[in-house]
Amino acid sequence: MTAEVKGVIARAKGEPVTIETILVPDAGPGEAVVSVQACGVCHTDLHYREGGISDEFPFLLGHEAAGIVEQVGAGVTSIAPGDFVVLNWRAVCGECRACRRGRPWYCFATHNATQKMTLADGTVLSPALGIGAFAEKTLVAAGQCTKVDARAKPESVGLLGCGVMAGLGAAMFTGDVGPGDSVAVFGCGGVGCAAIVGARLAGAVKVIAVDLDPRKLELARGFGATDVVDASTTDAVAAIRELTGGYGADVCIEAVGNPKVFEQAFYARDLAGTVVQVGVPTPDMRLDLPMIDFFGRGGRLAPSWYGDCLPSRDFPVLVDLYLQGRLDLDRFVSETIPLDAVEDAFHRMERGEVLRSVVVLGR
Ligand SMILES: NC(=O)c1ccc[n+]([C@@H]2O[C@H](COP(=O)([O-])OP(=O)(O)OC[C@H]3O[C@@H](n4cnc5c(N)ncnc54)[C@H](O)[C@@H]3O)[C@@H](O)[C@H]2O)c1
Ligand SMILES: [Zn+2]
Ligand SMILES: [Zn+2]
């Protein structure tokens, strides 16, 4: 039977979000209905509300979530009702060229639910990143549910569903950080701080955090940065060189989405080093670098989408590391809030006051 639940809706560009009744159909073939327990507020939700991602309003926001599978449709064998799952936006198809070549993290035919959730009057909703989890229940493709150890806290491990995974993977997978490496992370929001944690997990010995905001640099230290650089008062490139014996860092991670910061990351790396870009640019941004510097310095410039992760491979492992006390996901949760406080949380995020506000439901 179609469920009637509350959800956070962005009706029109730039307008404050509203809480509305939404209709969630029963799970059809290949789908699942998930009872959402927690969902983090990500910058991308705000981008949707601002019309920066598409103009397919109204959006059902929310996409960094964990919950309990309530119902599965025909043919679903990977999960069952009662399973504790983290939702993902990379349910790989297994059949496209990327999947067949053994690079499923580049899958270009990822699955979402086929049926639509709607407003009470039948208006079709666009769920953020194919998830839409600022709601008591949501409908997704079964492959968007990754079963993990149920002893984990939903508000912490739900964050693996987007920003934290993007940062961890930028260091561990895209940047391929290894034991003994030096790493510089530009921008210490949720994504950058996760990149710091990922660099440490991968064995980096020096992890330099760069930001303009001293509050963020303090947080970065808490996540294990060995050095911090306030780029509002210091030349970040010179500072990173000095901290790395004059060489530059092996891996520089841009977690802002700003061409000036990209340029700093480009020049702050050692010869043959890697720049990972995880910050999302806007369409008007341009890079202008002397080609001889690109050629002459060697190395790699690597964009990173969702940390090149494979949810089915990575989420259970990361949750195990969390439960063993080796990956502090609790530290990313600045506050827990009710469903009707998302708009306020956007403002706190814009003012730089939080790493993650997390909506907690049903408790
Ligand atoms: N590639 C992906 O798959 C993916 C996934 C999720 C988010 N993102 C993107 O990652 C970026 C960061 O996300 P977030 O949630 O951490 O955002 P955030 O706003 O919390 O953090 C950005 C940080 O950058 C700092 N900053 C701003 N300008 C700077 C500058 N010139 N030099 C140094 N630091 C500067 C800010 O003070 C802030 O601490 C965003 O662009 C977001 O859209 C990418
Ligand atoms: Zn595929
Ligand atoms: Zn996100």
Question: What would you say this structure looks like, in words?
Answer:
Helices cover 26% and strands 26% of the residues. With 363 residues, the chain is α/β, with parallel strands linked by helices. It starts with a strand and ends with a strand. The protein folds into 2 domains: 3-162 and 308-360, Medium-chain alcohol dehydrogenases, catalytic domain (Quinone Oxidoreductase, Chain A, domain 1), CATH 3.90.180.10; 176-303, NAD(P)-binding Rossmann-like Domain (Rossmann fold, 3-Layer(aba) Sandwich), CATH 3.40.50. Helix 4 (163-174) runs parallel beside helix 5. Strand 11, helix 5 and strand 12 (206-211) form a beta-alpha-beta unit. The mean pLDDT is 97. The chain has helices at 43-49, 97-100, 154-157, 163-174, 190-201, 214-222, 236-243, 259-267, 291-297, 311-323, 342-350, and strands spanning 3-10, 18-24, 31-40, 59-60, 64-72, 84-87, 118-119, 126-127, 137-141, 145-147, 182-186, 206-211, 227-230, 249-254, 269-277, 300-303, 335-337, 357-360. Strands 3, 5, 6, 9, 10, 17 and 18 form a 7-stranded mixed β-sheet that branches. The protein binds nicotinamide-adenine-dinucleotide and zinc ion (2 copies).
Keywords summarizing the entry:
363 residues; alpha/beta; Quinone Oxidoreductase, Chain A, domain 1; Rossmann fold; 2 domains; 7-stranded mixed β-sheet; 6-stranded parallel β-sheet; 26% strand; binds nicotinamide-adenine-dinucleotide; binds zinc ion
